[in-house]
Amino acid sequence: MDTNLMRDFLALLARFLSGVSARWVDCQPDSCQRIYFANHTSHLDPVVIWSALPPDIRLRTRPVAAKDYWTKGPIRRYLANRLFNAILIDRSEIKVHQSPVELILREIGQEYSLILFPEGGRTPGFEIGQFKSGLYYLAKKRPDLELIPVHIDNMNRILPRGEVLPVPMLSSIAFGPPMWLEAGESKTSFLNRARDALLRLKEL
Amino acid sequence: MKIFNTQTLSLIGAVVILLGLAEAVLAMLKRRPDSGLDAAALETFRRRVRAWWILFSALAGAFLMGHWATVILFGLMGFWALREFITVTPTRPSDHITLFWVFFIFTPLQFILVGIGYFGLYSIVIPVYAFLFIPARIALVGDYRRFLERTAKIQAGLLICVYCLSHAPALLSLPLNSPEAATPITLEAAANEATIAVSEPLASTANKTPLKNISLDAGGNIRLLFFFILLVQLSDALQYAWSQLPSKHVIVPSINTTHTWEGLLGGTASTTLIGAALWWATPFQGAHWWMAAAMAALIAVMGFAGKITMSAIKRERGVRDYGTLVEGHSGVLDRIDSICFAAPVFFHCTRWWLVLNHYIPPVG
């Protein structure tokens, strides 16, 4: 089957099911290399952000997703490998000397943008958890990448953690202004600043 | 069955002419940017006209494809409106499974029952069975925080967006054109299609009066639904237009600043006149033309009630519109709120009129 056609179809389906409306706040869709970092509440999050991007940008954007979830069964494998072109991370093997940052940087090269969930896992409820350090190291090694905060609203009501059946409410996604790692900025203050950027989008 | 006779085509023609006029006015205003009109108001009007084209084309298309297509069209509108309603209404994560029932069991069930015309069940399945099911299912989950509030919100959403709206396609299953359902006693009425017997009901007890045959043509139900939707939309537009008068007496300033007494009275009066002028498209034929006028007035008042109620909910939640189906436009529920309020009342009043005039039996 034609992969591009399947991609468009899947994006349309995801947009219909999640009823997502995208807002670009002080930010415009652009095909330059970017890292979209978002809050994470539902397994559908990467798919929904991916489908909310314009088609040409979607093709060059790869979500970072959990290997244990997306390699379970042939359908998920097909979706992750062929359609979303996801970068799968083995969460059980994240250690100091086996950092996924190198793998991610290798995979995106000079071409792809990333969708990333710096909380490291799904946070239950309506809070935004503390960020893991991966975002900081990515920003440090590739200071040329634009970091775009993305706030996903209502996905936790559509498919909450632990539920199997989705309820078709309407979600919305806000893309915020790009940010970068400042010269000499410490890890903690950078991660807090990034998290604050998400919280600000939540208030909008 | 022949659906498109002179009356049906005239009604569709009237809509096309009205929308064409609106487009002409828009084009004229566009050519004169210095007309002193508010650019934002003009943009709103342009979007409104666009939305009407979509609504009436979808309706006409559904009519062409038949009864079920129309029911499904309204089913999808109700489903989407419910999505918008629940989205702006806070529920708790423990309501998830209840919401699943509401969206995927009760909503389709209601429209299926309307589609097969099972009046005895579609008029109670939500107000009785869903009404009782929702709090029980929430209680079973074990989360009692804000229990009554959550229950009421889900019940209100289901009632307004699904139950009330479904009475619009239910107009299609009113027995207006099935001679076998009634005992024909007026042969001359049956011979002349689209004419109903206007003789006064016999002065005996209702139960013993033999049923008369209304014997409209096959398009009678579709015209009734079209008449209803057209009048709701016209009443919305006319109330808005009359509200632009310089003297403004806002009815409820704390909830909605656009609805004035001038708008309500002027809009209702002009909608009533249009309804009376369209009597030929309805079952209210001959000497019953005044029913068409009364129904139009009812539609206008109920439409206003719908707008003001949904405004109050939006005010409480602090949102301007229920949704953004198409970027820059408001949601489906913002467009159909007046239909939701007017539909059940219009349906039941029409049904009562049919029963009182012995066209259909009191129950069933």
Task: Note down, in words, how this protein is organized.
The complex is a heterodimer of chains A (204) and B (364). By secondary structure, chain A is α/β, with parallel strands linked by helices. Helix content of chain A is 39%, strand content 17%. Chain A is built from nine helices and seven strands. Chain A has a seven-stranded mixed sheet, sandwiched between helices. In chain A, helix 1 packs across helix 2 (45-52). Chain A is globular, with a radius of gyration of 16 Å. By secondary structure, chain B is mostly helical. Chain B has one domain (6-356). In chain B, helix 3 (67-88) runs antiparallel to helix 4 (96-116). The chains are: A alpha/beta (204), B mainly alpha (364). Chain A binds chain B through residues 19, 21, 124-125, 154, 156-157, 160, 163, 165, 167-170, and chain B through 79, 83-84, 86-87, 91, 93, 96-97, 99-100, 103, 323-324, 327.
SS-based class of chain A: alpha/beta
Note the total helix count of chain B.
Answer: 13
For the biggest β-sheet of chain A, the strand order reads 1-7-6-2-5-3-4
User: How would you state the average pLDDT of chain A, rounded?
Assistant: 87
Cα gyration radius of chain A (Å): 16 Å
Q: Flag low-confidence runs of chain A.
A: none
Helix content of chain B: 55-70%
- What's the order of the H and E elements of chain A? HEEHHEHHEHEHEHEH
The oligomeric state of the chains shown is heterodimer
Characterize the main sheet of chain B.
Answer: 2 strands, antiparallel
Helix content of chain A: 25-40%
